[in-house]
Amino acid sequence: MEKAVSHMVHELRTVRTGTASPALVENLDVEVYDTMVKLKQLALITVPEPRLLLLQPFDMSTIRSIERAIHESRLGLPPQVEGKLIRIFIPELSEQRRRELARVVKQIAEESRVRIRTFRREALDSAKKLEKTGVLTEDELRSTGEKVQRLTNCFIGQVDRQVEAKEVELMRF
Q1: CB-CB neighbours of 104 under 10 Å
Q2: What is the signed CA dihedral for 135, 140, 145, 147, rounded to 10 degrees?
Q3: Which one, of 82, 78, 90, lies nearest residue 53 by Cα?
Q4: Confidence at 102, pLDDT banded by 50, 70, 90
Q5: How far is it, in rounded angstroms, from Cα 83 to Cα 81?
Q6: Sign of the torsion angle spanned by Cα atoms 68, 64, 29, 26
Q7: Which alpha helices (H) appear in the chain, and where do they start and end?
Q8: What percent of the chain is predicted at pLDDT more than 90?
Q9: DSSP, res 100
Q10: Is 57 helix (H, G, I), strand (E, B) or coil?
Q11: Rounded distance, CA 119 to CA 61, Å?
Q12: Distance CA 167, CA 165 (A)
């Protein structure tokens, strides 16, 4: 359940909010040297201004591959190559685009909730098997079910809080 929440938080970082953040691009896969490498391993990513990402490749021969990966990503942010640097300007988000991104955030959250509920079901199934083999009593099974449900509620609450914070961030700018 912790991994599901952690994964969701990571996914939410990639949803742009109108301000520059290295998390928008750092995990993009770039094809270099006939293999896929994360962008953060190929370039220094800085935020010199609130609406600008600046990429400084460690190896200048990778600059075209990095540019291509950014173009092909779902970010919709055109990179500008200027000598040894790549600049990515983050445009202001329209109200309609903010609403679309809010829907994406809710979809990511629902996927996380489904994962958490799947883990709950697996835990309860394991407890039922233990009860059938005699390792757990019926009372222990009920107690275990209640504990698992409390954990589930706790993690779903974390998901809800993260989504609420992201929606506030989206609508703020």
Answers
A1: 17
A2: -120
A3: 90
A4: confident
A5: 6
A6: negative
A7: 2-13, 63-72, 95-133, 138-172
A8: 53
A9: H
A10: strand
A11: 45
A12: 5
Model pLDDT, residue 86: 93
Domains of the chain: 19-89 (3.30.1360.40), 95-172 (1.10.132.20)
Q: What is the pLDDT of residues 112-168, one digit of tens each?
A: 999 999 999 999 999 999 999 989 899 999 999 999 999 999 999 999 999 999 888
Tokens of 43: 């370039």
Contacts 24+ apart (CB under 8 A), 110-116: 111/8, 112/4, 112/5, 112/7, 112/8, 112/159, 113/156, 113/159, 115/1, 115/4, 115/7, 116/1, 116/4, 116/5, 116/152, 116/155, 116/156, 116/159
- Are 86 and 22 a contacting pair, CB within 8 Å? no
Strand-pair partners of 45: 55
Mean of pLDDT over the chain: 89
